[in-house]
From TrEMBL:
<keyword id="KW-0808">Transferase</keyword>
<dbReference type="InterPro" id="IPR011611">
    <property type="entry name" value="PfkB_dom"/>
</dbReference>
<protein>
    <submittedName>
        <fullName>Putative kinase</fullName>
    </submittedName>
</protein>
<keyword id="KW-0418">Kinase</keyword>
<dbReference type="InterPro" id="IPR029056">
    <property type="entry name" value="Ribokinase-like"/>
</dbReference>
<dbReference type="InterPro" id="IPR002173">
    <property type="entry name" value="Carboh/pur_kinase_PfkB_CS"/>
</dbReference>
<dbReference type="Pfam" id="PF00294">
    <property type="entry name" value="PfkB"/>
</dbReference>
<dbReference type="GO" id="GO:0016301">
    <property type="term" value="F:kinase activity"/>
</dbReference>
<feature type="domain" description="Carbohydrate kinase PfkB">
    <location>
        <begin position="5"/>
        <end position="295"/>
    </location>
</feature>
């Protein structure tokens, strides 16, 4: 496979607490377990790497214990950080509370990943065959959105750009969002995010409107629908609902990121879009049967899973299942 995934996103440290249910206001809960793990954009990078892509990180890491933790996690997955560490701040963190029904509640604290400049991004260079990914989190930060928007707009036309608006899409200034959508080659979002961008409607109408009015250069739109799988619309007019796979989830954290990483990995190998979506559904389904946001399966595990099923059933993509249940 030629080329790389160049990830311009936000890697943070997740502090994960498992509890039976969220506490009432003013109440206290004791967690059944605690873990410190790499999270945020790290989850998508891991998914792409484990499905065969060479991945490099073009966001910013901090100087301090969180930054050190993330550098070690990236190195363990064979992912190179291209930019120098921030000399003035550490990487951010996110507190994740995982309840007994496998759903998640988050509280985030931005750090070095929220500050980008074109000078800082100078070492991030793309070459023919590369794919570039960015998320709405980085665009939501006032200290990074302008530089990232300029950098994305300057990408060569032959470089595919994949965008995930994420649950905080409403926090991105519309002018910034429009600039990025106009350069997007593949948009991957959930139903709630699609509605935020394009207004109300059924999934077919949303995908059509996203292509015609918001992503004029896109090759396709993929709208993830939690346990139902995803819907794909191609610029040429082809559409398909790609069903997921029936699993018993234990942790849905990172499943949407796994879906995107596996989808991009498959596309980069020349897999057709509808089959790449089915492959991504399988990756996400496997990921929710494991603990941790960076629980993406390998290419071999996905292929084994697909070889043992008769066909698609209901299943899980799930990063934001509460948002569109």
């Amino acid at each position: 496979m030629s080329g790389r995934l160049v990830h311009i996103g936000s890697a943070v440290v997740d502090y994960v607490y498992r509890i039976d249910a969220l506490p009432e206001p003013g109440a206290e809960k004791t967690a059944s377990s605690f873990a410190q793990v790499a999270g945020g954009g790290f989850n998508m990078m891991v998914a792409a790497s484990r499905t065969g892509m060479k991945v490099v990180f073009g966001g910013q890491l901090g100087t301090g214990p969180n930054g050190d933790f993330l550098r070690a996690a990236l190195a363990a997955e064979g992912i190179t950080a291209l930019t120098p560490a921030s000399p003035v701040m550490d990487s951010g963190n996110c507190v994740a509370m995982i309840s007994g029904d496998a759903e998640r509640t988050f509280v985030s604290w931005p750090g070095a990943e929220s500050v980008l400049s074109l000078d800082m991004m100078a070492p991030v260079r793309v070459a023919p065959g590369d794919w570039v990914f960015a998320s709405g989190y980085t665009l939501s930060y006032s200290g990074s959105r302008d530089a990232l928007g300029d950098w994305i707009e300057a990408l060569p036309e032959n470089i595919p750009f994949v965008f995930d608006p994420t649950p905080i899409v409403a926090d991105i200034p519309r002018a910034t969002l429009d600039r990025v959508l106009a350069r997007t080659t593949w948009l991957s979002c959930n139903t709630t995010e699609a509605v935020e961008i394009a207004g109300s409607g059924d999934v077919e109408a949303l995908a059509a409107r996203l292509l015609s009015s918001h992503c004029p250069k896109a090759e396709g739109i993929i709208i993830r629908a939690g346990a139902k799988g995803c819907f794909v619309r191609l610029a040429g007019g082809g559409t398909r609902t790609v069903a997921g796979f029936k699993v018993d989830p234990i942790d849905t954290n990172g499943a949407g990121d796994t879906h995107i990483g596996a989808f991009v990995g498959a596309l980069s190998r020349g897999v057709a879009a509808f089959e790449a979506a089915r492959y991504a559904n399988a990756a996400a389904a496997l990921s929710v049967t494991r603990h941790g946001g960076s629980s993406a399966p390998t290419d071999a595990e996905i292929k084994t899973f697909l070889s043992h099923i008769a066909g698609p059933s209901t299943g899980a993509d799930g990063r934001n299942r509460k948002a569109h249940a």
